[in-house]
Amino acid sequence: MSNTTAALEAAGLAKSYSRRKPAVLDECSFRLPRGRVCALVGPNGAGKSTLLRLAAGLLRPARGTLHVLGLTPARARERVAYVAQSKPLHPQLTVAETLRYGAVLNRSTGRWDRRAAERIAYGREDGEGLAPDARIRTLSGGQRTRVALALAFGKRAELMLLDEPMADLDPLARQQLTGALMSAAEEGTTIVMSSHVIAELEGSCDFLLLVTGGRLRLGGEIEEVTAAHTLLTGTADLDASRQTVIEERPSGRGRTALVRSTEVPDGDWLAERPNVEEVLLAHLRNTHVPPFLTGDASPVSVQRAERARAQENAA
Amino acid sequence: MSDTTTTRPQPRTEGRIRTGGQGLWAVLRLHRAAMWVWIVFVAGMAAAMLWLQYGPYGTGATAVQQGCGTPGHRDCYSIPNRAEDFHQFGGMLDYLSWLLRNIAPVVAGWAGGALIGREVERGTVELAWTQAVTPVRWLTEKLAVPGVLLAAGSGVLVLQFRALLHWADARELLIAGYSTQDYYFAFGPSAVAYVLLGLAVGVLTGFLARGTLSALGIAGVAAWGVTYLVNPWRTRIWPVVTDVQLGKGPFGYAARPCQWRQSETIYSADACLGAKPASLYWPVQLVETGFLLVLTALAVAAAYWLLRRRTP
Amino acid sequence: MTAAGAFKFRIDRRSGVATYWQIVQQTKQALRLGLLEPGDKLPTAREVVEATAVNPNTVLKAYRELEREGLVEGRRGLGTFVRASLGTASSLDSPRRAELEEWMDRAHEDGLAREDMTALFDSVLNERFPQENS
Question: Which of the residues B57, B112, B273, B307 could staple to B199 if both were Cys, CB 3.0 to 4.6 A apart?
Fold first, then answer.
């Protein structure tokens, strides 16, 4: 059963903070299979944090459903770790007391991993981590992030939801903590990391969710998403009715276009496989193009509908 | 890649949430400052009452009354030069009663406002709610732990105040009048209920107000406002003694001098008109306590409702 | 060889070369240079991801590729071990090396600078053996 229930599965998910303002998140449907390291990408204010807060059980959706590890977010609470963007911590506690706070608040699960939390907070080598008796209020932003992540690691969650986890880490800490995250992923933990810096996530993430303007634009395994797009360079005209043109820019006497297709159209075209960054940037600049979800990223309801349609066609 | 998730036991669909609480340590550690304010308040009040009883004013006033001839002749306090201790004692008693009635609920309100408001402001509520503690359980502990401490502290103070009152009455140190009446009827379980109401109102404002400082301000004003509104209700609504004879008023005392001196001061005339029989004590206390606990329950329910509306 | 446990991958994110391919290439180079010999254990996926912060699936993909090429084999519960060598000494000190040295001397006499030689070498190499880097 665990294999079939997704880490996250959203259907028609919407959230607005006020009736008068437009929805922060609208019509979001996607599926994140377990065991992936997912980059949640999008510009500031796109709805990334809202999506993570919904998944963490901190917000109530206005419409639609969201299942976390096959459960409602509130029921999945003890199996999910969440690190908020502002890394809230109690300033009057010391680092050691903060870890004790985490241990106490997770006591009921019997899963608290004190050593894992301490390894993240204090580091394994000298000069890597923090002093146990340092007060939270004396810590820098990056050091607070380390403590917040230590709590998340200590929880030994099946799903880690991290809002901008790397934003204020120095390069050394970033490398060390990403390494720790990857080794958690290696054990089967699903990780979702949000960021507006794409380069931060390359290499460590294998799944992608792109959100802009509260809507989901791209979703799926990074390899699959990039493989579904082609970068065409040539002088011929593109027939927009034959493939979805994400972006077209003049280049010399001809043009360079990113299209959502693997077929090379007639004419003299140089076809290249775009990298993630090119695909993402093109979608960020052109938000009118229809969204694209790979099979893995489609909610089960959608998959079922497609299977039914395929069967109908076959019959 | 080893998929450890497959080996984990699958949750039952019902009754599965094994969420625990934050525990005593976490609540006390996080709100150590508020706890110390309360401890200092309780200790300070207790010390002040002991000092009043056994300090210079108490002993001085007792000496005045003892050297005053026959019992029943109770106007020694009007003897020039010797009256000072007696009047100081009365004044201090009045002051302590005011602190206990008006400030204790406000301190509780501040504690409640700080308990929630600070966590909301810092975002640490979300830290707590994303551990294995449900928001409802979290709030319950935030109410229960300080609730017990506040009830215990104010309960001790109320008992001590009543003991002081009886001690003073036995030594004929109480001046008949409005305030003695008031002490008698105000201090009991209802004083504890006021403190709990202060906490509940504070917690509610902690959720509603933006920022800790405004929560503290609003909680203080609200807690004090309720006290201000309920006090007159207590003194006006209950029937008064019409047959003003010795033994009918509280301590069997309050009614007498007012009849005696009715024409001289408005103050004692007031007290006389409002004199209530001692048998009313428990009805007054229980009705008032019940009313305050209903208000407390409403404030707590509103806090839970706000919490439920915010979180799934 | 006990030092094999300490074998480390160096991932260059800006090279534009896919991460899994860097791991494959570095393993092969280590085989050529004799840093790894048959029977040696490759670092576990966990060790690699902790040290390099790359996605574990990437490491596993690289190891699968090496396995497909018959260079390593995964033993359940034990790890991934080197199976074959890639002609260690020969690449460092072989007749081919002498020929290359001779070629470089002649190129130098013809006035080719260091960069020209690299470009020429890469060009021919890519023409003959196109990179399978996807």
Answer: B112
- Average pLDDT, rounded, for chain A: 88
Residue A211 DSSP label = E
Nearest-CA distance from A122 to chain B in Å?
A: 20
Mention every residue, 6+ apart, whose C-beta is less than 8 A from residue B147.
B196, B199
SS percent in chain B: helix, strand, coil, step 5 = 75, 0, 25
Closest residue, chain B, to C63 (C-alpha): B1
Opening angle at CA A105, ends A102 and A108, nearest 5: 125
Under an 8 A CB cutoff, do A158 and B127 touch? no
Domain range annotation of chain B: 27-310
Interface test with A, best of B131, B138, B141 (most A CBs within 10 A): B131
- Contact across the interface for B312 and A34, Cβ inside 8 Å: no
- Residue A205, chain C, CB below 8 Å: the answer is yes
Mean pLDDT of all residues in A109-132: 86
**Partner-chain residue, chosen from A37, A174, A183, that has the shortest CB–CB distance to C50:** A183
Domains of chain A as residue ranges with CATH:
6-222 (3.40.50.300), 223-290 (no CATH)
Residues paired with residue A63 on neighbouring β-strands, in sequence order: A14
Helix axes B104-122, B135-170, angle to 10 degrees: 160
Residue B307 has pLDDT above 50, yes or no: yes
Mean pLDDT of A152-174: 91
**Cβ-defined contact of C50 to A179 (cutoff 8 Å):** yes
CA–CA gap between residue C133 and residue A106 (Å, rounded): 46
Domains of chain C: 4-82 (1.10.10.10), 94-128 (no CATH)
Residue B7 has pLDDT above 50, yes or no: no
pTM equals 0.81
Q: Coil, helix or strand for A195?
A: strand
Q: How much helix, strand and coil, in percent to the nearest 5, is found in chain C?
A: 60, 5, 35
Cβ(A81)–Cβ(A163) below 8 Å: no
Interface test with A, best of B24, B116, B130, B212 (most A CBs within 10 A): B130
Tens of pLDDT along B30-60?
A: 888 889 999 999 999 999 999 999 988 888 8
**C residues 62-101 near A, CB within 8 Å?**
none
Which of left, alpha, beta for C16 (phi over 0: left; psi -120 to 50: alpha)?
A: left
Q: What tokens does B109 get?
A: 């309100």
Q: Using the structure block, give the residue that is written with the tokens 């403190």.
A: B195
Helix axes A95-105, B23-30, angle to 10 degrees: 140
pLDDT at A141 over 50: yes
Closest residue to A204, CB basis, from C45, C46, C53: C53
